[in-house]
Structures
1.
Amino acid sequence: MSGNRKGEILAIVALLLGAIGVTLGYAAFSNSLNVSYSAVVKPDSSLFDVDFSTKNDGLMTGPVTPKYNRMAKNFTATTGQIDNTGDPTVSNLHVTFTEPDEEVTYTFYAYNAGKYAAYLNSLIFSGTKECTPAAGTNPTMVAAACNGISFSVKVGDEAESDTSIASIDHHELGINRSDMVVVTITYADGSAIADGDFDVTLPSVVLTYDSVD
């Protein structure tokens, strides 16, 4: 968890709210549809099923392996975990940086395993970036280095984003189709460095899929 730079040990731990929430919301089938005076159709909400997967052509909930932009001593990242038992969630995204110009990406998929087409309607970030100095680390230097830490998400062919998108139009996810989701955590090249360790908490993000565009 350490790396040498001008004789100093510099470690940055990037945490995504402990357990990151990249979560897919489910459509609400709350109203009955009156087809005629004597018949009522009640859609089965369980048939709307968008989950996370480690592959693009089916549903598999294995580990999400980090990919590094370069190899460096003590530059590490944990393996992400998919949990589809409730609201689908990818958790355990945790990066240990040692110096600027380090980046980790996690790639997984939003897979439509249901019987309805699904539409990505929003991408909402929750929380703010917070940098907390360890004991003995200069807070002013931490604040400067903190500016170089970022987190972004790219879903399918939508543009990569690090801010909320309240409305996404015409993004259809067909039955048995998938959207690639790429989470990128970066300590940008040329960023300031601190004189000791500090922790970074980054926003979580929610992907909302519905049965209507």
2.
Amino acid sequence: MIASATLDLRDAGLEPAAGSNLRTAGAAVALGSFGVTVTSVLYALSPPAAALPAQPFDQALALAGAVAGARTLLAAGTIGIFSDIVFAVGALLLTLEVARRGRGLGVAGWIAILLSVVVFTFVDAIVGFVLGPVAAMTDGAGAFVAFKRLFDSLFLLGTAAFGAGALLALVDDMRSAAPVASKPVALAGASTGVGAVLTAGACFAGFPLEQGVGISIGLGSAIFAALGLQIALKPR
């Protein structure tokens, strides 16, 4: 009977170890996502030509924006890199837990989210610690252009990966017999994921939808903060 009960708990994904893993994962996702939300606000307070993958690229505006917004960009990068690491830990734990349950679509989604957070670690490092100092150099225009174009491409790549991952992970969760997110949060996250993929793709094609990219990341991180709290606080 004890063995049968243990199997039932495993089938439902509710054994004590899994519950502890989910609480830790949820707390990390919530804390990391909250930090990314704060980072997104600081990005929004910075000159868009420097803080977003502006289309088309304007070197003069980007240089001036990086110098003028050096303080907010530094704050964004500093908060962002540490928040990204915490978010990545939570995403990795959730990837392992979803894999343990044999849900391939969800695993693919959380891997994409994890990769997007890794990419954004580099994005935040560049914006906080490279663009401003290089832009202020008297002979740094060439290096600035190279780093800014790298920043733009990584920003768009990270946004696309996050959007695709959110869509896959949350659609899979809604189909699960034991979902970790409420349906409204899952629907909001999946919808934001679609927006992130579309706006990032449009920017890659040269359309000026960088504001949509920024909004997708800011809104998506706020939704994932709520998702992380739900995962961490859900009774098990």
